[in-house]
Amino acid sequence: MKKKENPATDGSVRVRYAPSPTGVLHIGNAQSALFNYLFAKHYNGTWVLRIEDTDIARNVPGGEKSQMDNLRWLGMEWDEGPDKPNPKYAPYHQQERVKIYHKYIQQLLDKGLAYKDYTTEEELQQMREKQKANGESPKYDGHWFNASEEQIKEAEEKGIKPTIRLHLPENTLIEWDDLIKGHIEFNTDNLGGDFVIEKSNGMATYNFAVVIDDYLMDITHVLRGDDHIANTPKQIAVYQALGFKQPRFGHISLVYSTKTHKKLSKRDKNTKQFIHQYRAAGYLPEAVFNFTAFLGWSPVGEREIYSREELIENYDINRMSASPAFFDQKKLDWINATYIKKFSVDELYKRIGYMIDAQESDEAKEIADKGIMNDDGFVKSIIKIYQNESTTLMDIMKNMMKYYDITNYDLSYNDFDNFDNETSKKILDSLKSELQSYDGDVHLSSDDVTAMLKKIQKELGCGAREFFMTLNITFTGSQSAPQISDIMSLIRVKDLIKLIDKAEKVL
């Protein structure tokens, strides 16, 4: 049973998002960051960005920058971090805090609560294999705890570099009231034995460094993915050994695939895994933020569209789900399309401009190369026509490219097979005759095109379906199209005639 959490609203709440720069911002990372952000902002607290970069071999170039850039793109600005240091808590990179960790490790060594372990990798492997053969769970046997001075001297003379392990009390319960999962408890006998808190290279391990950082940075609540549940009892053991007051823990449900019903894997190619992919594909940050907030949390009521400010106001950690959160691509697409409908044409023009400047897709590069954005009247007309039909900004961009070079577009005329060819030819002949009376370089207004089409349809006595389907196929390559007069107003008269000629060759 979960206990209700009602933190103070006086600014004393401090939470952190602490990514490793071993990759770019993943949807699961974004979920964890977002709930820390909402929690901090709802309680007028502080959201800290800390970089856990001790795994040097796995750190990737640009990993930290990607985390920061994509968090900002989503609209999550941290209060403290590497670029916004508070002198009381800095530095914010773990590599710069190594001396701090050594200080507390030495305290544990001095108290006899930690010890040097000279077991080699080969010996550890033999230990695991023996335990496996006996049907036992792998567990460090603690044989270097209370080792004699002679044993230690002999190991050091061999040049063995020791790890440092925290000694766990036997058969002791470690428990906590999780803010999301409810009461959780572990027996120390089931934690794999005394665990390493400093590697043989002198670098503190994650489960030790994170405790020191959270304690010294006055973190009040630790909210992270529930894949960390097994780490939490080890960290509580460190808090207890050092006599530190521990924060409240809350473990967020992981994001699962609706197709596999398994945790989203980076190998799953059916789902975009990284935030930069959504940015490049034309998703709006407001929509991705809104969608991500529902991955493991729900407000009161059925409403699903919330602004960032509304989500901050309505956020309640007591409504976090203990069950897996399923990634629903259709729901994200619906939310994104809803936001596109809400925005003004000028705002969407500006957002598309950002995508062109970022050059993160082949489409953005092509639009930039052709200078299409320079014709703002054309671009805004495309936005206006396709705004209510687009799932992403990329949909609008593709139509910009299509109509900018419409005569070179590979149109398909197979749909003409459903109509009487002679009637379709009469429609196009009449339209071509009307268009030839205009300057080829002009664009007709939508109203002028509408009047022209009404006149032709009346003269020919054609049914509306056959008349407009013929025009849709000719000028868009599809039977289904927005208002055809709006589409035709985008295209110069001479290019309208070229498209009619192409269609008539097929007919």
Structural overview:
The chain has 507 residues and is mainly alpha-helical. The longest helix is centred in the N-terminal third of the chain and has 16 residues, at 27-42. The chain contains 20 helices and eleven strands. It folds into three domains: 95-252, Rossmann fold (3-Layer(aba) Sandwich), CATH 3.40.50; 275-404, Glutamyl-tRNA Synthetase, domain 2; 407-506, Arc Repressor Mutant, subunit A, CATH 1.10.10. The termini are far apart. Helix 1 (27-42) crosses helix 10 (308-314).
Could you report the average pLDDT, rounded to the nearest whole number?
93
pLDDT < 50 runs, ≥5 residues: none
* Strand fraction: 5-15%
Write down the domain tally. 3
Biggest sheet strand line-up: 3-4-7
The helix/strand class is: mainly alpha
Quick one: overall form?
elongated
- In CATH, the topology of the largest domain is named Rossmann fold
CATH class category of the largest domain: Alpha Beta
